Amino acid sequence: MPNNNNNNDDPNLIFARGSSHTSLIDASTSAKAATATAHKSAPTVSHDGPTMPIDIPPLPTTLMTVEDIGGMTFIRIDCPAVRERQAFALTDALTNLAERTNGKLTMDLNKVAAFSCAWINTLILVGKRCKVKGGTLILTGLSTQALHTFKQMGLHKHFTIV
Questions:
Q1: What CATH number is associated with residue 134?
Q2: Cα–Cα distance between 70 and 112 in angstroms, integer?
Q3: Residue ranges of the chain with pLDDT lower than 70?
Q4: How far apart are CA 37 and CA 59, in angstroms?
Q5: What pLDDT was estimated at residue 69?
Q6: Sign of the alpha-carbon dihedral angle for 26, 143, 147, 74
Q7: How many domains, in total, are found in the chain?
Q8: Rounded to an integer, what distance in angstroms lies between the CA atom of residue 22 and that of residue 39?
């Protein structure tokens, strides 16, 4: 659903405007929650004794781009590494897209060079949501190493990989 608010200059927006579809989400909530959690952890210890925790860098302003192409929703993940923070920030948006599109999603992972198990869990969740809605999650642009990992773990059964 297009966002008609004039928030396009907001630096806290995660999603970029696609050619025919816009999805926006405020990254400040996710980043503040992750930062607050990080600062609740125990202080780090150095050779000189305890120090304050290291600040976590903010999330990139664009984690993904969403476009409608011929009745299929095309998602491009724009960050080179999808770790716990990025997976957390993307999970709700991706599952909501699966709901709104009746599970017809294509996700381009060409720019993703590294990912964590949190990202794999997100992909499984989104893939299941797509199946429940009668569609499928199609993954494109997986590196050879990522494809090998997915096959070793049996994950290729949860998605259509092209």
A1: 3.30.750.24
A2: 25
A3: 1-61
A4: 15
A5: 85
A6: positive
A7: 1
A8: 33
Residue 143 region, left (φ>0) first, then alpha (ψ -120 to 50), else beta? Answer: beta
Identify each DSSP E strand in 23-153 by its residue range: 44-46, 49-51, 64-69, 72-77, 81-82, 104-108, 114-115, 136-140
At position 131, the amino acid (one-letter code) is: K
Q: What is the DSSP letter of 52?
A: P
Longest CA pairwise span in the chain (Å): 60
Q: How far apart are CA 32 and CA 39, in angstroms?
A: 10
**What pLDDT does residue 118 have?**
96
Q: Express each pLDDT in 116-151 by its tens digit.
A: 999 999 999 999 999 999 999 999 999 999 999 999
pLDDT value for 72: 82
For 99, the token pair is 């709901």
**46: in domain:** no
pTM confidence score:
0.65
Using CA atoms, how far residue 89 sits from 54, 70, 94, 103, 120, in Å, is: 21, 27, 9, 20, 14
Residue at 43 is within a domain: no
